[in-house]
User: Which sequence fits this backbone?
């Protein structure tokens, strides 16, 4: 593949689907591919294994979460309501 400076990971689509769709894909894929903090051990080692499946590479803790991020906004608000 040639230059993908502006479109980053969405360069694999070439000129198809339009710029707006490819920018949305870039945001989503950057979120899903980064490392997150583990709830159990506290290390930044949680990675996505599959759709909605997350695993900590440090302690081996595997859990279900959101499709693109380990904790959805609904789950976060639910956890806040439990703390009170």
Assistant:
């Amino acid at each position: 593949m040639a230059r993908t400076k502006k479109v980053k990971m969405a360069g694999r689509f070439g000129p198809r689907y339009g710029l707006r769709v490819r920018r949305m894909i870039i945001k989503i894929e950057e979120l899903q591919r980064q490392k997150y903090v583990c709830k159990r051990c506290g290390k930044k080692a949680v990675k996505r294994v599959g759709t909605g499946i997350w695993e900590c590479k440090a302690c081996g803790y595997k859990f279900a979460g959101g499709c693109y991020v380990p904790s959805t906004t609904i789950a976060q608000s639910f956890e806040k309501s439990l703390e009170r």
